């Protein structure tokens, strides 16, 4: 990542700070006066202090997420928590002098959205760096790179991310293609999924990558027919070049975090799960959250391959230090395998053209590490995409529980793209969380043109099988994997419900039998994601006593046609009773 002046990011943050009232800002809306009697005729002034709301939201369509009582009209907030949920008349009974009344005028309210899997720093940086996500042709892609390079003549490196495998005739890029665009300085562009890097010749030269370079464990230096590196580096081989890219300074990371936190609040997020972080980044995130207190972050530390007592003690210190409040450490996260397009996801059957993927662990190593963390009371999150990788993760969890006699750890498998159908019941049986990403089945050109053919028809039919996962009784937590996909939750809900692009293609949706109802998608982004972080007692549904984390949307998701979900705007985000985002039009 080169250090660039990020005028755009600064502008977005400034605009957002000015627009979405920060929690430190007091609400300017006048309280409604005079107070009315509620239906029972009880005078509000007779309320004891504990029954008096600071704020009531009335005349809405409130989706509570609570199975017994999914819909209500209104809710009352006192301090950081919900005081009451019910009819507007009931809730008005909690208003007294000084209570702010928010008339929702029929707007849709849901529990604050929870993103069950993202990378906050990468996502935050993606708001300001060269993004190649929407370039599906080679010409469009190289055009964006050329433009960025011309606009940033002082950057020592040309860096960016988001390219799709579909933009390249061979499914993988080459250094010669990049040399034609950037020849006089090193260039390093990371694929949209973060699992393959594309270097130009100068970057390879600086990294000392030649035909003699050996493939590192868990990675591949892609070579041409003559054995020369092509410029594509997969998985751990990405470090060969990636480590040379100038590192961001702590204050640059903190600025990015602040910007990302503000953006997350504007998308209706009140909580996110950070999938892996190191101790230094955790400190920086703590500082950013203190400055922009608009998000709760549940953190998974990076897993250690060899969790010795010393390693566990060091991680335990962090868990104890961040055990409550907005920033909470509770899990460790590792990678069992890679991704489909790079053919690194671990499969039982070979990919077209050969190979069954690149597991990062042997089953024995994985079992040992998982058992040690399980014994020490950690929740383990394992990225596993191929059917064999998913089986390895489930097997490690099952063995750990059996060997340690533990239960209720809520270990998680992240992504679960191509599970064997027969393995899905293992989630419920072992209490393992299915942590999937709502936009992963987004059927764009990359998905249909590269992802699906790389799987082949039999595996494609069981890919991102959200419905089958639900039907197998698993707790399914939705996330975005931001920056892999946007963390804009309404886009995720739209994708899970329609399985089409925003343009509505393919008609009827890709693998339409796996489409979800709106209610199921909402549940995965709220209640189930709260459960996945052991947080269901305090959030995930709108119930008295729970945190007042909620979102007000411009459209009633349960009433509009699915193809309109994507156009929904987040009007208000409330975190612990305080506004963290308010749209101008609300
Ligand atoms: Zn991830």
Task: Explain what the structure shows.
It contains 19 helices and 24 strands. The strands form 4 sheets. An 8-stranded parallel sheet has the order 8-15-16-17-18-19-20-21. Strands 3-2-7-22-23-24 form a 6-stranded mixed sheet, with helices on one face. The chain has a 6-stranded mixed sheet with strand order 9-10-11-12-14-13. Helix 1 (7-19) crosses helix 8 (250-266), helix 3 packs across helix 8 (250-266) and helix 8 (250-266) crosses helix 9. It binds zinc ion. Zinc ion (ZN) binds at residues 117, 119, 275, 481.
Helix amount: 25-40%
How far apart are the first and last residues' alpha carbons, in Å?
38 Å
**Strand order, largest beta sheet:** 8-15-16-17-18-19-20-21
Shape: globular
Helix and strand composition category: alpha/beta
The helix count comes to 19
Give the averaged pLDDT, no decimals: 91
Secondary structure: number of strands: 24
Question: Keyphrases for this structure?
Answer:
eight-stranded parallel β-sheet; globular; alpha/beta; disordered N terminus; 19 helices; about 575 residues; six-stranded mixed β-sheet; binds zinc ion
